[in-house]
Design a protein that fits this description.
The protein has 440 residues and is an all-alpha fold. The protein contains 24 helices and no strands.
């Protein structure tokens, strides 16, 4: 699931996995104990859990695609005004007029490090909150919260210095930064950055440990593998491995549902709402407990592909143009691609990716028709459409309950399944469910 976090951070696929390999190699060199290594393992893979929460603000401040802006956020030396200015100039208001660029640049330049601190704080606090919901140990939670602190006290969000920064957070900091430089510029450039920033960004002892395995070509080749995650198993302490039962998998789905919904202020509770409604529909239809659980998970993760969609599209206050619409329509394909990676999620990946299909075959992204849509897929289509219509959106006026159902009824037969819609009505009547109830 860390691959989904790479997407929203604007990083190449496998960034978190490669950071994990680097961080765990450092832990091995340092001789950390089994519990510390276990906490570090999960903190490294999930370090960007809060990354979606500042996407909308970044998009607004820079007037630009949030993923493009984020791409070199991890490498910009924010306390240096010249570096800050260069970063802003590279990213501000692409395609805008000179006046628009000047306004954005002036606003951001005046904010400088304060803006960076606020953006990092939003991300780190949200990431720690989600990590805690997954029952990660507190050392892992704090590592995620403090991963952008710097040894000299010039990092964020709290300006911690030296040993005030938890050791695991210090490892996260150097691992993620060196991974970005290694993947972009190669080993020599990455190690040069480590030496240059020893004592400022990084704990000097960690830089020394990093340099100690400079000649381990077998290790560095793992970071260049097409499938780096196949090398992860050797680093997770065997006596700390946790087998994910159904309850744990449900927590993972719920946690990533929070990541997804944090991407846009307009979808703050969308994934949970769709999941609840879809479960209500299939329960009314008498589906098996196993199928109900699959539907629940599919509802929570159906929009995970939207993590790869710019907030300039997601939050646009007007109608999307043809190019923007085509980009948006790619998200179910990305959902399928992400969920298929996870063996225990593959059984509902197809359901999750079918939430914009139609019975007449005119939906997207695969153009499936009635014969190819199972009851759970049909339920998810109705649930997604109902929740989206009933909730507030930036591109239209709020709809009354009557208007919502008028639209749904107009799509019966050709678009949505009549039986699933009848089950929706029964669920709503029986529970008095409203889209505001999930927010409460």
């Amino acid at each position: 699931m860390s691959y989904a976090l790479d997407i929203v951070e604007g990083q190449p696929e496998g960034h978190a996995v490669r950071s994990c390999l680097l961080g765990m190699r450092l832990a091995e060199t340092l001789g950390l104990g089994a519990q510390q290594r276990s906490d570090l393992f999960y903190a490294l893979l999930l370090k960007d859990l809060g990354c979606a929460s500042n996407a909308a603000k970044i998009c607004y401040l820079f007037g630009a695609d949030d993923q493009t802006v984020k791409k070199d956020f991890k490498t910009t030396d924010w306390p240096k005004l010249t570096e800050t200015a260069k970063y802003i100039l590279r990213n501000v208001a692409p395609g805008g007029t000179l006046l628009e660029k000047a306004k954005c640049f002036t606003s951001l330049a005046l904010g400088g490090p304060k803006v960076a601190r606020e953006l990092v704080k939003i991300r780190c606090e949200r990431g720690a909150l989600i990590a805690r919901s997954l029952n990660l140990n507190e050392d892992a939670v704090q590592a995620i919260r403090n991963l952008d602190e710097h040894w000299d006290g010039m990092g964020h969000p709290d300006g911690l210095r030296k040993n005030q920064i938890p050791l695991l957070a210090r490892i996260l900091s150097i691992a993620q930064t060196i991974e970005v430089y290694f993947t972009r510029d190669g080993l020599d450039a990455a190690l040069a950055i480590a030496k240059e920033r020893a004592g400022t960004w990084f704990d000097p002892s960690l830089v020394k440990a990093l340099l100690s395995f400079r000649m381990d070509s077998a290790f560095w080749s793992t970071l260049q593998s097409d499938v780096p995650r196949r090398f992860l198993d050797v680093y997770e302490p065997e006596d700390r491995v946790v087998n994910a039962d159904d309850d744990v998998l449900d927590k993972i789905c719920a946690a990533f549902g929070q990541v997804i919904d944090a991407k846009s202020p307009w979808t703050a509770c969308h994934s949970q709402g769709v999941s609840d409604i879809a479960v209500g529909i299939v329960s009314e239809q008498g589906l098996s407990p196993i199928e109900i659980r699959r539907t629940k998970r599919a509802g929570l993760l159906h929009d995970i592909g939207k993590l790869g969609v710019s907030n300039k599209i997601l939050d646009k206050p007007g109608k999307l143009d043809a190019v923007e619409l085509d980009l948006l329509k790619l998200h179910p394909a990305q959902t399928l691609r992400i969920l298929e990676r996870v063996g225990c999620f593959a059984d509902f990946a197809e359901i999750a990716a079918s939430h914009h299909e139609r019975l007449d075959g005119k939906g997207y992204f695969r153009g499936l028709d009635a014969d190819q849509l199972c009851p759970s897929s049909r339920a998810l289509v109705v649930a997604d459409m109902y929740e989206a219509l009933a909730a507030r959106r930036p591109y239209r006026k709020d709809l009354s309950d009557g208007e919502v159902h008028d639209i749904l009824r107009r799509n019966l037969g050709d678009g949505i399944c009549p039986r699933a819609y009848d089950a929706l009505l029964a669920f709503l009547s029986r529970t008095n469910y409203t889209t505001s109830s999930i927010a409460a």
